[in-house]
TrEMBL record:
The keyword Metal-binding applies. It is found in: Periplasm. The keyword Manganese does not apply. Its cofactor is Cu cation. This is Pseudoazurin. Residues 7-87 form the Blue (type 1) copper domain. Keywords: Copper, Electron transport, Metal-binding, Periplasm, Transport. It holds the Pfam family Copper-bind. The lineage of its organism: Bacteria, Pseudomonadati, Pseudomonadota, Alphaproteobacteria, Hyphomicrobiales. It comes from Pseudorhizobium halotolerans.
Amino acid sequence: MVNKDPEGRAMQFDPAYLKIAPGDSVKFVATDKGHNSETILGMVPEGAETWKGKINEEIVVAFDVEGIYGYKCSPHFALGMVGIIQVGDSTENVDSAETVKLPGKAKPRMAELVAQVGDGATAPAD
Ligand SMILES: [Cu+2]
């Protein structure tokens, strides 16, 4: 969770796209202050657990269910502070994840991240 990523984007998760294996855990590190990590509702696989960290809280999230997980920093959601974690090779829920309404810069940023999702997934048409 950083105020500026290596590409110069303000308010980001770095890396914002991550591919892991089922059973892996991810730690959200509070490199800069004022951020959190929280699931975007509608952007997790069916049956998967959601998470919600407090501001400045470093949380460790375990991922067992395969699929696409979209998450945000609550205060900087509309500034495009969002991320995707792909667990395993399943992209089954990417289409439904793409239908979630996102505010401001979160929409184009999420489209960039969805484009990085492997295994035949495609970027949104708009
Ligand atoms: Cu933030």
